[in-house]
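Per your request, structure below.
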């Protein structure tokens, strides 16, 4: 038993013991010293005397008083019995409170030692109090930590693999440039392409790190969201020409809000490029900007014709370092949608994904107009 158990035990026991002692002493002190005796009847008048020769009636018997047994007339036995009962009750109550706290402490020790798969919800499933709520919060915390650490391990593996390949190609291009200077233009183009790939990865990592650290950029400039979406669509149309993908727009009316233009551009661009990447050749991507006057909100909707995402993964695709099932190295590093959600959270918005009934994925980005 830990210290908390003994604290609860002695606190409850002393409270009950003092209560029982006080009540017992009060009852014993207020008891009557002698039981009341009935008063003697008045003498009979002379004319009521029995006639001569008649038998006198028997004297009346004094009433019989039933009092407590002798062993209860002293305060010590009741106090001992009350102390035993309070002892049992205090021990049970202290155990009831200290057991879940002891389980939580052991779970925290296991998490601190690296066992992130430990859960305490099963051991507290029969409780309906704040300690059970604390256990469920602990399980959510441990699950979140497990997901983040697994994601970081995947990131380390993916980044090391992705950086190793362009670095190897850079080294090979530099060696070939030294050996074949007549092909300098070809090798310089290769070097620029590989350097841009590494710069993109580092930029995404820095952006996600700043958003997670709570570094807020300047966000009070007026931004026309329709103009931002139009710029993203223009770039996507240029990229989609190689695969004959078409971008269709709907409702791009002017909608001005105060935010950071660069972050909003990146948030929308990540979603549109993700839809372009997963759409089949010749597919159509719909980008719509809708206004909800009742809620004073703006919603950017991006619909693609790709394979969609399993229902269980719809929320996970917005987590860092998560890729859609079946994605290859060309699908990026799993940071784009995570950055999008961080940007929407920064402005009090929300990002969600839905599977379309006819196939494909629909991503909704909602922003308040304030």
């Amino acid at each position: 038993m830990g210290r908390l158990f003994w604290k609860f035990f002695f606190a409850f026991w002393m409270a009950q013991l003092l209560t029982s002692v006080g009540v017992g002493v009060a009852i014993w002190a207020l008891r009557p010293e002698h039981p009341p005796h009935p008063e003697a009847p008045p003498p009979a008048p002379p004319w009521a005397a029995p006639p001569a020769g008649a038998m006198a009636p028997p004297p009346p018997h004094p009433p019989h008083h039933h009092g407590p047994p002798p062993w209860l007339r002293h305060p010590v036995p009741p106090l001992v019995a009350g102390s035993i009962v309070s002892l049992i009750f205090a021990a049970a109550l202290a155990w009831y409170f200290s057991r879940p706290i002891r389980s939580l402490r052991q779970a925290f020790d296991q998490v601190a030692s690296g066992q992130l798969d430990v859960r305490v919800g099963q051991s507290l499933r029969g409780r309906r109090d704040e300690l059970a709520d604390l256990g469920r919060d602990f399980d959510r915390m441990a699950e979140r930590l497990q997901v983040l650490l697994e994601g970081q391990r995947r990131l380390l593996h993916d980044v090391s693999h992705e950086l190793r390949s362009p670095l190897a190609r850079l080294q090979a291009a530099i060696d070939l440039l030294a050996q074949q200077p007549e092909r300098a233009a070809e090798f310089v183009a290769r070097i620029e392409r590989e350097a841009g790939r590494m710069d993109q990865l580092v930029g995404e990592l820095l952006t996600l790190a700043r958003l997670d650290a709570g570094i807020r950029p300047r966000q009070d400039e007026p931004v026309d969201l329709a103009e931002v979406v139009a710029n993203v669509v223009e770039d996507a149309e240029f990229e989609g020409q190689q695969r004959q993908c078409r971008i269709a727009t709907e409702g791009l009316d002017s909608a001005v809000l105060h935010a950071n233009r660069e972050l909003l551009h990146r948030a929308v661009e990540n979603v549109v490029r993700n839809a372009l990447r997963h759409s089949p050749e010749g597919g159509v991507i719909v980008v719509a900007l809708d206004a909800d006057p009742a809620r004073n909100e703006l919603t950017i909707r991006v619909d693609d014709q790709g394979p969609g995402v399993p229902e269980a993964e719809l929320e996970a695709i917005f987590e860092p370092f998560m890729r859609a099932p079946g994605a290859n190295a060309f699908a990026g590093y799993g940071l784009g949608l995570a950055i999008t959600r961080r940007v929407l959270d920064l402005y009090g918005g929300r990002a969600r994904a839905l599977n379309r009934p006819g196939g494909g994925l629909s991503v909704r980005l909602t922003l308040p107009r304030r």
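The radius of gyration is 42 Å.

Regards,
D.
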